[in-house]
Amino acid sequence: xxxxxxxxxxxxxxxxxxxxxxxxxxxxxxxxxxxxxxxxxxxxxxxxxxxxxxxxxxxxxxxxxxxxxxxxxxxxxxxxxxxxxxxxxxxxxxxxxxxxxxxxxxxxxxxxxxxxxxxxxxxxxxxxxxxxxxxxxxxxxxxxxxxxxxxxxxxxxxxxxxxxxxxxxxxxxxxxxxxxxxxxxxxxxxxxxxxxxxxxxxxxxxxxxxxxxxxxxxxxxxxxxxxxxxxxxxxxxxxxxxxxxxxxxxxxxxxxxxxxxxxxxxxxxxxxxxxxxxxxxxxxxxxxxxxxxxxxxx
Length: 298
Ligand SMILES: O=C1C[C@@H](O)[C@H](O)[C@@H](O)C1=O
Ligand SMILES: [Co+2]
Description:
By secondary structure, this protein is an alpha/beta fold. It has one domain (about 5-295): Divalent-metal-dependent TIM barrel enzymes (TIM Barrel, Alpha-Beta Barrel), CATH 3.20.20.150. Helices cover about 40% and strands about 15% of the residues. It is built from 11 helices and 11 strands. The protein has a 9-stranded parallel β-sheet with strand order 3-2-1-11-8-7-6-5-4. A two-stranded antiparallel ribbon has the order 9-10. It binds the ligand O=C1C[C@@H](O)[C@H](O)[C@@H](O)C1=O and cobalt (II) ion (CO). The site of ligand LX7YND4F has 11 residues, from loops. Pfam families: AP_endonuc_2 (PF01261).
């Protein structure tokens, strides 16, 4: 399907230990997490809070298991903290990822975000940026993107539930307001469907700007309850709003079909945060690996 183009498969540690709620999977060790990723047939990982920050130590642990680092999340606060402070943190993050051999840097604007607030209803209180905030965001991202380019890397922007860049219109505004040379898009199926967007529209319109992919599925019945009962993002995650591809309500066949029509090369990262005490991480990783083989042929 992908005609020999290089697509590598990674899985995020968030199914084992959740960075947003460290109590989920608190007992799971770093070694168990990466060993099970390799056992399930993945080649890479993103960086979680239990990963050693010393590049040599991290590389050794990953090399032993045939894994490499695809990327890691960076929380930007361009709309609230300003460019200079954000850039200083970004450079340290970029340099760590560069040393680990990653080519893309995941960035999400967390100014005014409600994704980490346990009691704030997700669908009623998401932030909406004003003109000034949009200017701070797009200008700051262009500048962070040129810092990434200094190391031959790409900034991939993560649209996300509970943030100012969640909906199709907001993604469109971000894409139109930024320079394609500096700002690329991270395509996350789960966040688009959770928000009520059509994930195929974003692929059709922005395929040439997509340089990183998060494969997340959603349980539609849980999403309905989140809306009806006014749950927060974290409550939704705990209740199982997300799961691995092949276990929820998204049909990934057209998604893979459209990606295959473009020129995409890079990582597909399975990313499915749910409670590891309910959804055994190794079992779900194996399930995801099988589904991708069956539907994408990789
Ligand atoms: O890429 C991601 C990183 C997580 O920390 C986040 O909350 C999750 O939903 C996601 O898509
Ligand atoms: Co994601």
